[in-house]
Amino acid sequence: MDWWGRGFSASSLLARIIRVAGVVCAAATMWGHIFAQVGGIQPGVPSIDWSQPMYTTPPEGPAPSPGPATPTAGGEKPPATGPVSGFMPMLPGASSAGARTPMATGGSVQEVQPSEYWLPSKSGALQPVINIPFEVFEKIYSQLQSGGQPPAYTITELRISGKVEGSRAELDFSIQAYVQGGSWVAVPLGLDSAAVLAESQNYKGPGRYFLAFDPKQGYVWWVRSEAEDTHHLRFTIYVPVTRSDQGAQLRLLTPQAAMAEATLEIPEGPVVFEVGEGLQVRTTEVGEMSSRIELIGVGGQLGRGGQFSLGWRPQSAELAAKESPLLELSAKVTARLFSDHVVTSAELNFRAFGGILHEAEISLPPKAILLLSEEETSYNVEAIKSDPESEYCSAVRIRFAEPLKTGGVVNLSWRQELSEGGEVELGFRPGGRVLRNYGLIVVVSPTPRVCEWALQGDIRRVEASSRTELVPKPEEILAAFEYYSGGYGLRMRFLPQRSYLTVRPEYELTIHSDYARLVGRFRLFVRGQGITSLELLTDGWQVEQVDPESLLAAEIPKLDDPQVLPLRLSQPILGSSELVVTARRKLQLSEGKVRIPLLNLKADLIASGSLTVRSEQNIELVFDASESVGILRQDGEGIGPALGGFPIRGYFQLEPARQDHQVFVADCFVHRQEITVASEATVLLRSGSGTLEQRIFYEIAYQPIETITLAIPESLGRSNGFELLLDGVAVGVIRSLSKPDAEGKEEVSIRRIVLPEPRSGRMELTVRASFPVPFLPPRASASVKVPLVVPREGVWKSNRVRLLVEEGIRVQPRTGTWYGAVDSFGWLEGPEILLHTEGGTTELPLALHRPGGQRIFVERAWVQSFLGTRVRQDRMVLRLWTGEPDIEIRLPPGVDPDEVWIAVAVGTPENVQKIRRELTPGGTLQVFLPQRSQAEPVFLDLTYRLPYQLRQGHTQEFLFAQVEGGVWIQRVYWQLVLPSRWHVVVDPPDWLGEYRLDFVGGVFVRRPTLQEDELAEWVGAINIHKAPQSAEVYLFSRCDSIVPPKVIFIQRPTAILVSSAAVLLAGLAVIYLPVLRHPAMLVLVAVLLGAGAAIDPVSTVLVGQAGLLGFFLVGLAAILRRKIEQPVGAMQEVVAAGQTPPELAPTTARLSPVSSVVERSAIPGSSAIRG
């Protein structure tokens, strides 16, 4: 018996199981002894003397009943002697309900019964094992091998009966099957060569059924019923009968059944039956007019593998056959085709069985002329003719010089004339008692031919490329066939092969002012024989190129005005191919009409194609359908509209009478070049700066341009960021064409841009630049000229400017050529203003005005605070605009006005001016500013100090110096510098933190986004006061005003201590309180941590980094708790295994405090400790 295909027999498998069980038992016993020695003497287990043998005879006592122990009443199981997760054999001297008495103390030999062992099953329940008889094990093993499941179906009965009628047998097919219920079951029936009569089906059974045919299995009977039951099906089938000179034969593929039988009646005289393998004859009845035979299947099969085979022949043929041996003939036949005849050469290999072969007879196909060889052979060939005067022979008789006892080879050749239709019948048939007849027929033609064939009988076509052993030139093989019985027919028809060329043209015609260019894409399809040359009908075209070049065998011939251009191909073309021809011809468009014939290929059929006509942009064509030949227009009439020529595709079909002559005719109109331009500019005006983005749109019609000329103001051309983009691509070459004036200055320069390629249609030029704008403080006015670029070519279509003005600024055009929606005073209100003019101009002069508002405007402010433990120093740098001669500054409480340092610069930070300051009666510091223009900014640098107490954990407010009056602060930065180891816990409200996290030295550090030098350059500080390297620097910002910030500080040791303590307490609670390890609690904690990280990721990272010490201590506590609990748990398991002897009571008492509760498990003899 095979065990999972590995070659294990049942006996060897049982031996392996017993051997493995013994090893496991020995190992379990040894571990039991070790536990007994280490953990003390267990109840009921005596100490072991290691000097004695491991297994000894147990003490005498009443022997228990044989067989496996059963659970006791009340559901209790026999006491276990060890852990239930492994084998634990009984120790010497132990008693158990499952123990056996292996041997009596006397000298007689007794049977030693193995002990029971309890093992957990898949569900966890304990089951006794090992103590089962071998017969029970063998039965279980057999069930596992067979699966223990009956098959889905079983065919219990198969009956076939019927009679032979001519070339077919009409049989009654009856089958009975037992089928499992609940689903569809497929019962394969075979019957591959049979035809089922649908109206003859008769079904008996409780369910449903239907018949289906599968190409691999034959007929399949599909059955479905709700329960297991027997089903019966009966129907009639037709089976073909193969007949030959030797007799007849019936073959049929049948299914396997428990009982199978067949009965067949033959309406013929005395016959001799030939029964196939796997069949037994029950009875035969042979009469003068009919015969009958009854067969039963061996092993439930009607024939070997279900192949039912029954043959019969007349008794006269049987008597004649006894005089000649059985013959096996294999042949290799080559049929070579010529112009009007076929020559067949056959190599015949004879083999004789059951006698000596003196002669053989071969039947030839009709109208065969035997070709005798002049070479000496060991056999003679005699032609058998039905008409002695005819040259055709119907058969040949082969006489061997020496009779064949085993086998021999004969070569025959004959010739057959082709009929008018090229038809001929090939093949031959052997005579006599033929046991087997098979061979190969290869049809060969030295010239390309088209062949058709009709097959009859046991013959099939095979792949010709795999049958090249008979032909030296495999490319000459037309077809190959295999036959495998005595009865077959092969009729063929050969037709001469010629080339048949189909061409589908696709043209692209481009018309220029003086010539036309034609690209013809010809899709070729060649059937029959491959072509080696093509003829191109040029009709006045000059061929420039033919692609692909590898298709031609030579260069294009140079002929003077050829009408037909021959093209020799490098190799014959068969099937699909493509040829692209490029040609050119001269044109004269002054006549107002263009007439262009199309070149083409000479072919058997020119299919419908397409024509695409394009023209230069100044040429407009109107298609003339009345004069065009072979071209049908299917979309608009015009080609080349007013704004440039885009292609218009036309479709045409070639008429059969004009296959090689198509003419395109159209009316022609030539236009001059037209250019129109439009400008749209967007100007952003802010106090102190302005930017320009101007888009110029060109529309070029009829003729392309290669250059464009622009008038560019010099102030715009020399500005920073000036760039020109043509359709989004920067312009490469710009040349100046203007000349400077007498002083060498250029107000407007004329520049020419060379285009990368000639352009037509729509084109876009983009100009981007910046220009200066005076700063406008409140209640101030200024003038500005917006520079614009003006194209020099084309006619203006529109010129518009869109002004985006800073809030609070009014605009007024200074000239009357620009128009917009103004108020009653002539001013334009923002923030968006639209202006337009006629024509082009290089500048837009504007008047700007800002009405009265805040008295002082602080554009930029920087406050720098240095904190010590006892003192604070503030530095305030302001960049402001004001028209007032002085400003007042209110100092914070605790600042001595005499210790305040003030510096003032005008225009630039380097232009420091002398100032005068006074202390007003109201306690403010009045600073008198130097004389200046309203367009110049003022830089104020103020430094002071005051007492300050730095405390941690308290909210501390910072009061800064304030500029009195109406002050608008656009942007302010506050830089806070703290001593080392001091940190900001809570950022000030209403201020935005300007910092980022950097990973430095293995930790995350909060760094400001701007350093001191960057802030000083931004605000325009007179000098820089850098913070120490060890200091902690924070940066905050806000807009509109300086609000006193409120900050909470903490020292680094305190932060680490608090964070680590919180983490440690939380970790110890999770370790020692099981309720906190509940999944719901863990999910809640994870959600809270994730929410905190999403709300303030920076603080979350810093707090987590500060609590790393706590995480380390929590991990250390978890490891220590695990290490301490392991020895105690082991001792608890030893103590819990049973009752402690009285002499070891102190040991148990010492262990009792460790375990608080001890419960007995469901299994007697085992216990578990719950802490």
What is the class of the largest domain in the CATH system?
A: Mainly Beta
**Approximate shape:** flat
How much helix is in the residues? 10-25%
Q: What percent of residues are in strands?
A: over 45%
The computed structural class is: mainly beta
CATH topology of the largest domain: Immunoglobulin-like
Please tally the helical runs, counting DSSP H or I stretches of 4 or more residues. 10
**Overall mean pLDDT:** 78
* Rg calc: 57 Å
- Which regions are unreliable across 5 or more consecutive residues at pLDDT < 50? 1-10, 33-110, 317-322, 641-648, 1141-1171
How many strands appear in the DSSP assignment?
A: 70
N-C termini distance: 54 Å
What would CATH call the architecture of the largest domain? Sandwich
Could you describe the largest sheet, including whether it forms a barrel? 11 strands, mixed
Number of domains: 7
Give a quick rundown of the structure.
With 1171 residues, the chain is mostly beta strands. Helices cover 12% and strands 48% of the residues. The strands form 13 sheets. Strands 3, 4, 6, 7, 10, 11, 12, 13, 14, 15 and 16 form an 11-stranded mixed sheet that branches. Strands 17, 18, 19, 20, 21, 22, 23, 24, 25, 26 and 27 form an 11-stranded mixed sheet that branches.
Structure description:
The protein has 1171 residues and is mainly beta. It has seven domains: 10-61 and 71-146, no CATH class; 153-312, Sandwich (Immunoglobulin-like); 324-496, Immunoglobulin-like (Sandwich); 499-670, tricorn interacting facor f3 domain (Immunoglobulin-like, Sandwich); 674-850, Immunoglobulin-like; 856-1044, Immunoglobulin-like, CATH 2.60.40; 1055-1127, no CATH class. It has ten helices and 70 strands. The strands form 13 sheets. Strands 3, 4, 6, 7, 10, 11, 12, 13, 14, 15 and 16 form an eleven-stranded mixed β-sheet that branches. The longest helix is centred in the N-terminal third of the chain and has 29 residues, at 10-38. The chain is flat. The protein starts with 9 loop residues before the first helix and ends with a strand.
